[in-house]
Design goal:
Number of domains: 1
CATH superfamily: Glycosidases
Helix content: 25-40%
Distance between the termini: 12 Å
Number of helices: 14
CATH topology: TIM Barrel
Largest sheet: 9 strands, parallel
Strand order of the largest sheet: 8-7-6-5-1-14-13-11-9
CATH architecture: Alpha-Beta Barrel
Length: 494
């Protein structure tokens, strides 16, 4: 079996993180405020919140969880309060532990590390003429140290956040001026580290983002949302053109949340609803990978009451066509099922699949779904793909002898990686690499917890940021080290 399913040489194994979930360094090195910095912690019962100050001085908050972003009350201003815990401020302090963390990656045998840029570390307000030198020095140091360990950087330019000043002054991506600010960020990065970095992602999970945190707009109505998204489409296309001009041979993608959805039954109504539901996410990758709006966009906009003419200018079609993506990347964690009466939206669905077991956080564990998505994406675009997020959030326990036996994570990853190998070696999918989420433990995006751990390396920190931040290996560390060393052959030897 191992010989028959030998993954081609050159495949990139590694891990992935997001700046606001791991970096920390709040207020250091000239870093400015981000929209993420107003977001509190939470848990499975209590969604994360954005803390707000009302015009009369009173205090309120709105739900900022991944699927239920709320609009701001009129006149409300995001505010940081001393009695709240804001996980992005410290995260797990990669800012000060970066070399230690990269050393762990090198020991595991990583060939690639996907990380994201804190926009406000390069342009604290987002609107400056010149970038912040300390911010550029930080990321250059990260890139140089990675390369010294033979690890390629895979850089996400914008990961679900906006400098708070751009949100306050322009309502973020509602205003086309932010496109120019984004391109200024791109140019600064390309000039400073572009010659050292081949792989870039313009945005993260653009089909999943919503609300103030990711778009900078305090409004969440469909018209505003798709106005913001259209401007991000334009920014991405222009960044691709600029990157190709400044860095010949560079490759640009964008990341999408594409965990699989199935029709609940073979009832044609369920099957058709699944197609409509999938279009809600594929719309984003279709525009960016193909360079034009798909035919079914009119149906989506009609159902949502969106007027495309209100944000589409005459020259935009030419801009989109000039900058399609070179490769398509996605996250995959779980699957869901769709019924004929399932509400049409970008993400969601029923996660009660009787054929699958669930994780500690109620996510169905579906390895075969990964193979399905790989085929689905590659068949649709015929461009290389890259799996840039996949992993298991679970409760990890330190045993009395100091070890962490996360065999459940090994089982999850082994089963998913075997299906990945089948997609590559049997189905013929062109897959550049795999980056597991998230190298070392970090703050959960959906709940803001540390209890929901993903990493191969344990970080001593609790849900409120208390702890030594000491790093220690889990059982899965040695397991993945062997996977990297054998280019996946060991997956069939366990």
């Amino acid at each position: 079996m191992a010989d028959a399913l030998h993954i081609p040489d050159g495949f990139l194994w590694g891990g992935a993180t997001a700046d606001f979930q791991c970096e920390g360094g709040f207020g250091e090195g000239g870093r400015g405020l981000l929209t993420r910095d107003f977001e509190t912690d939470g848990n499975q019962e209590q969604p994360r919140q954005i803390t707000l100050k009302m015009p009369d001085g009173s205090r309120t908050s709105v739900n900022s969880s991944f699927f239920m972003c709320e609009p701001f009350p009129e006149g409300a201003v995001p505010t940081i309060y001393d009695d709240c815990y804001y996980p992005s401020h410290q995260a797990v302090d990669f800012y000060h532990h970066r070399r230690e963390d990269i050393d762990y990656m090198a020991e595991m045998g990583y060939g690639v590390y996907r990380f994201s840029i804190t926009w406000s570390r390069i342009f604290p307000l987002g609107d400056e003429e010149k970038p912040n030198e300390e911010g550029l020095e930080f990321y250059e140091d990260v890139v140089d140290y990675l390369l010294s360990k033979n690890i390629q950087p895979l850089i996400t330019i914008c990961h679900d956040e906006v400098p708070a000043y751009l949100a306050e002054k322009y309502n973020g991506w509602e205003d086309r001026h932010v496109i120019d600010c984004y391109l200024k960020l791109c140019r600064a990065l390309f000039e400073r580290i572009g010659s050292k970095c081949k792989y870039w992602l313009t945005f993260n999970e653009i089909n999943a983002i919503a609300g103030y945190i990711a778009t900078g707009s305090p409004k969440t109505d469909p018209q505003t949302h798709y106005t913001c998204i259209h401007n991000m489409f334009l920014a991405s296309a222009k960044a691709v053109v600029l990157g190709h001009e400044m860095m010949p041979g560079s490759m640009f993608g964008t990341m999408y949340a594409l965990s699989e959805v199935y029709p609940a039954t073979c009832n044609p109504d369920d099957v058709f609803r699944r197609m409509q539901f999938r279009h809600m996410s594929q719309f984003f990758s279709d525009v960016m990978a193909q360079g034009y709006y798909p035919y079914y966009a009119q149906d989506i906009f009609r159902n949502l009451g969106v007027d495309q003419a209100a944000f589409m200018q005459e020259s935009d079609a030419e801009v989109l066509a000039a900058g399609p993506l070179d490769y398509v990347t996605f996250s995959y964690y779980r699957s869901a099922i769709i019924h004929a009466d399932t509400e049409l939206k970008r993400l969601g669905g029923d996660m009660n699949n009787p054929y699958l077991k669930n994780s500690d956080w109620g996510w169905p564990i579906d390895p075969v779904g990964l193979r399905y998505v790989m085929n689905e994406v590659y068949d649709r675009y015929r461009k290389p793909i890259f799996i840039v997020e996949n992993g298991l959030g679970a409760y990890d326990k330190i045993e009395e002898d100091g070890t962490i036996d996360d065999q459940y994570r090994i089982d999850y990853l082994r089963d998913h990686l075997r299906e990945m190998a089948k997609a590559i070696c049997i189905d013929g999918v062109d897959c550049l690499g795999y980056t597991m989420w998230g190298c070392f433990d970090l703050v959960s995006l959906s709940t803001g917890e540390m209890a929901k751990r993903y990493g191969f390396v344990y970080v001593d920190m609790d849900d409120k940021g208390n702890g030594t931040l000491e790093r220690r290996k889990k059982k899965s560390f040695d397991w993945f080290q062997r996977v990297c060393a054998t280019n996946g052959d060991s997956l069939w030897q366990d």
